[in-house]
Amino acid sequence: MILVLDFGGQYAQLIARRVREARVYSELIPYDTPVEEILAREPEGIILSGGPNSVYGEGAPRVDRRLFELGTPALGICYGMQLMALEMGGKVEPVEVREYGRSDLRVKEHGLLFAGLPDEQKAWTSHGDAVLAPPEGFRVTAETPSIPIVAFEEPEKRFFGVQFHPEVRHSEYGMDVLKNFLFEVCGCAPDWTPVNIITDAVEKVREQVGDRRAIIGLSGGVDSATAAMLVHRAIGDNLTAVFVDHGLLRQNEAEQVVEAFGKNSDVPLVHVDASERFLRKLAGVDDPEAKRKIIGEEFIRTFEEEAGKIAENATFLVQGTLYSDVIESGTRDAAKIKSHHNVGGLPEIMDLDLVEPLRSLFKDEVRVVAAELGMPERMVWRQPFPGPGLAIRIIGDVTRERLEILRKADFVLQDEIRNAGLYRDLWQSFAVLPAIHSVGVMGDARTYAYPVMIRAVTSDDAMTADWARLPYDLLERISNRIINEVPGVNRVALDITSKPPGTIEWE
Ligand code: XMP
């Protein structure tokens, strides 16, 4: 197992993910996790992530020096490399020419980390500081035109540092560098798969919940359904699923979810129609963060009421929270982007304790687990749908009328995407309703109506995304059908923004 110390870098979670892709279990932990705790987990290697700080900056995160005396191999990436250099007696300074993006890396000495890799490679860098002098005993193994020390290693102690980001796909041989560290340096065996977490998660849930009762908020997506099946394995009939219809779902979605879940699982299901109460609370609210807070809070309050009805001792709420939800809502060391309703949007005081068996997994890993648990393909491959639903795809006020327009437009879009056989290739495809009108002409008459925005993205894990290059003829069909079939819409536009700089959702 590899522990990744999180110094707050945007790519920190990607490191853990790449290690897991190499079939070695890995977890991201706060950089100041006590050394005793790290030792107790017996990692085969430690990776120090990048981070937004300068090692000399005020309050810059540092590590306990004893970390370098454990005899465990360590790899420092970017900030992690600079920190390693500093702690071991090297010198770090701001660089004259900052490097952001792709740079030409030249391997000077292959050593262990670059073993078997080409001399020249493209590497992704993003930093303002660099190592000026390596610590004693360290050999410089790579350079770029502007940075003379882009990688170093101390093969005896098995300490390594790279200034570039091997975890990012743009680093041509990044994955090979990581694999060299895992297999050649740490001696890890590539035998982990996400399926391994099933037994572990079942055991942990059993321990946490004991013989008390739990409810799970079902959304219809693969995450909560998988969480339900896992927890059902752990506590059997002490789990009840509650499906809260907040009135912000897509066309026919509530019926489909209830039917599919009923068919495919033995977990008893309670269907609550709470649309009135959600829409009342959302009336007149147009700030995205406020919408999320309201929805997060209403979810919890509805669950609390239902839990009370199901059984007095239902004291746990199971959620299908994923790793990306946790990271994006801002960990202590990473910046907050938006408060996903099931993490940052939760009210401070709750009667229910949370059970989140998928909290350390990425979406594609959950899909592997779901398939292993016997979930039907249509559910396994459902595109993600945000908990706050259409409320964060309607810019501005969420009204019944605007919900109806978006539902119809979204239905057409999904229908065409499925017919074109593209549903599974896209991470998400959906329609957005902006809060503006534009002038058009239909049947010789002037119209003044809403535009609908089409958003379709490809992604591995929602942390980054690219806008999908949909075929023109498909776009044409979508546009024609939306304008013809959805009253209140007179224009269709396409969103061609990647993430970053955009986010996938508009709010
Ligand atoms: P963004 O918009 O941050 O979205 O690029 C990343 C992924 O998360 C989903 N998303 C949410 N899911 N509650 C959720 O359950 C939320 O508040 C929320 N906001 C965004 C989004 O659909 C995408 O898959």
From TrEMBL:
ATP binds at residues 219-225. PROSITE patterns: GATASE_TYPE_1, GMPS_ATP_PPASE. It holds the Pfam family GMP_synt_C. Residues 192-382 form the GMPS ATP-PPase domain. One of its GO terms (cellular component) is cytosol. The keyword Repeat does not apply. Keywords: ATP-binding, Glutamine amidotransferase, GMP biosynthesis, Ligase, Nucleotide-binding, Purine biosynthesis. CDD domains: GATase1_GMP_Synthase, GMP_synthase_C. GO terms for molecular function: ATP binding; GMP synthase activity. The active site is at residues 78, 165, 167. Catalyzes the synthesis of GMP from XMP. PANTHER family: GMP SYNTHASE [GLUTAMINE-HYDROLYZING], GMP SYNTHASE-RELATED. This is GMP synthase [glutamine-hydrolyzing].
